[in-house]
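Bug report

Summary: structure tokens for AAA domain-containing protein differ between web form and batch submission.
Environment: batch mode, default settings.
Steps: 1) Submit the sequence below via batch. 2) Compare with the web form result.

Sequence submitted:
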Amino acid sequence: MENVQAIKQRFEIIGNDPKLNRAIQKAIQVAPTDISVLVTGESGVGKESMPKIIHSLSHRKHGKYIAVNCGAIPEGTIDSELFGHEKGAFTGAVSTREGYFEEADGGTIFLDEVGELPLTTQVRLLRVLENGEFIKVGSSKVQKSDIRIIAATNVNMMDAIAKGKFREDLYYRLSTVEITLPPLRERGEDIHLLFRKFASDFAHKYKMPPIKLEADAAVYLVRYRWDGNIRQLRNVAEQISVLETNRNITLPVLQSYLPNHDRQVPSVVNGKKAESDFSNEREILYKVLFDMKSDLNDLKKLTLELLKHDNTQVQEANQNLIQRIYGSKSSEPSEMTNQNSHTALSLLPPAQEHVKQNEFHHATIADDINDDEDYLLAEAIEEEPLNLEEQEVELIRKALDKNRGKRKAAADELGISERTLYRKIKQYNL
């Protein structure tokens, strides 16, 4: 049996991180068996290397090896792709077709992004795992397949199971052995090593001198978060290799190629990584929306106080709140009263547009407001709901524009699968 170092050289795997070495060691150990394997890890960490290692060291190495990206196949055709179909099974099925499970009989099939499989397909896959049987689409004949299944996913499977998106029994059948690859940001010593390897490869490919990072740029390279992992690092190395005429790369030049270049790995405090406030752009968006809601609630509270009590006293007691909402302390009390009255009126829903200005002014100077009026006023200034769907559409548009319409790159940036992005594009008619 080959050792870890020999496997790295054979499959051109760069790095000496202990977690990476452990993952390769597990792949070597499980290879001679026929048990199913689930490879987990973030997008771009190199999960596709593990199935190749396992297949090449197994007794099936002379059989076929087929890799299938489950997230890239439309839901309506995935059963046909995997299990085949009979002639006339559906519109466009002009002839009988073999599926991947029939074609790879005696070999290995790698199901990438297995977490994106529809539930109906998961049932079919479970049957293959349990007794090696499957049925073509449009057929009633049971067929046998001697095949080894290796799957990979960047989805948290426990969350998917809890949400009813993935079958628990299928998960345990797939993950007889689970191999987890660490994200690039946890492989600090390997990052510069990988960058130098990519720089050397591109220098040879494009017939130019290799680029070299200056000391401060190399330190920054290691501290950057690399949310796209190895795929992103390779992309940055290629861009710099092609576009920069000066082969010594300074820190400002490196930062110009890194999106959100201020996002670095949290510093280590007492042996533990400090938690970052937000892990991705969606969480930042949610925080902004919640802050907006808080401001609206404060505005509602202030307006109620102005309507119930003496305006001058309320302004003096809430000077900080007024400054935060309106941005200035300089307004005269009468001006502030008119400004708040106008604000409260602007928040009235369409159903109450018939409320006249003089009636509202009368309410502002009343000494007391009864319970019924309190209820109506609270209803009048209720904040409008925040539309998350519009924010989602805007994020998808920006990702597609930034990546020039390339769905795979846009999906990686958004942190979703290409299949999910395709469904969203159809849903919102983008």
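Above is the batch result. After comparison, the two runs are identical; trailing whitespace caused the diff. The first helix runs from residue 4 to 11. Residues 267-279, 328-386 have pLDDT under 50 and may be disordered.
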